[in-house]
Amino acid sequence: MDFLRSSFKMAWFLLFLFFIQVVILPTSEALKSGFTIKVEAGNKECFFEEIKSNVSLDVEYQVVEGGELDINFYLKQPNGKILLEDVQKSDETHNIITPEDGVYEFCFDNSFSSLSSRTVFADLGVDFNDDDDDDNEITTRGLKDTLDGLETETIVEALIKIRANLERVDHIQNFLRSTEARDFKMATSNLNRVFWWSLIQSVALIGVALVQVNVVKHFFGGGKYKARV
């Protein structure tokens, strides 16, 4: 009987963990996305996201290719007021609390450039508590009673912390990948410049050497004096 009781508790415990994974943890974060966007010269690219008020909004971007690796960025509130604005920045990180409910506008502006497009890596994160917290709390309380004494609160807190840490690790890895891509493109561009400049210098050096050799030959061996009789 003890074995059956232990097996029954373990089954409910596994069911509880599954419930946390698919119901509670996913609601702790509504938006977490990393993407790459190409902004053509003289244009701007905007996208929109509906966000609630009083939530933590993380905005991070980095120009990985194009021009002087700079871009204009602004974030506009639903009422049309500009909440954030950066002018010709290579990369930036912002963390704000949203002041109101509604659709927020995120724009990357490359209108100041007439020749070069920009490739931008952006990472956005919105953290907030779900509206169904009461329902989750009721269901969790019922599972706690079923588990009969297991420290479910500690387990839930630990799993939420683990989930948050994993999301943070993923966020940092995405940013590091974008940094690596930008540095690789810059190194490749510098390598091409060094190669062609070295080639031009080498050709010029060889050309100058040939001219100097011909001049020396002309001065010292080009003509012969004839003896007078």
Report on the structure:
Strand 4 (71-76) and strand 5 form a beta hairpin. The protein is α+β, with helices and mostly antiparallel strands. It is elongated, with a radius of gyration of 32 Å. It has two domains: 34-127, Jelly Rolls (Sandwich), CATH 2.60.120.680; 132-221. The termini are far apart. A four-stranded antiparallel beta sheet has the order 1-8-3-6, covered by helices on one side. The chain has helices at residues 2-24, 133-147, 152-221; strands at 29-39, 44-51, 56-65, 71-76, 82-89, 91-97, 102-109, 118-127.
Key terms:
229 residues; alpha+beta; Jelly Rolls; 2 domains; four-stranded antiparallel β-sheet; 47% helix; elongated
What is this structure's SSE topology?
Elements: H1 2-24, E1 29-39, E2 44-51, E3 56-65, E4 71-76, E5 82-89, E6 91-97, E7 102-109, E8 118-127, H2 133-147, H3 152-221
Antiparallel strand pairs: 1-8, 2-7, 3-6, 3-8, 4-5, 4-7
Largest sheet: number of strands, sense, barrel closure: 4 strands, antiparallel
Strand order of the largest sheet: 1-8-3-6
Number of strands: 8
Total helices: the number is: 3
**What oligomerization state is this entry in?**
single chain
InterPro entries: Emp24-like, GOLD_dom, GOLD_dom_sf
Keywords: Membrane, Signal, Transmembrane, Transmembrane helix
Protein name: Transmembrane emp24 domain-containing protein 5-like
Signal peptide: 1-30
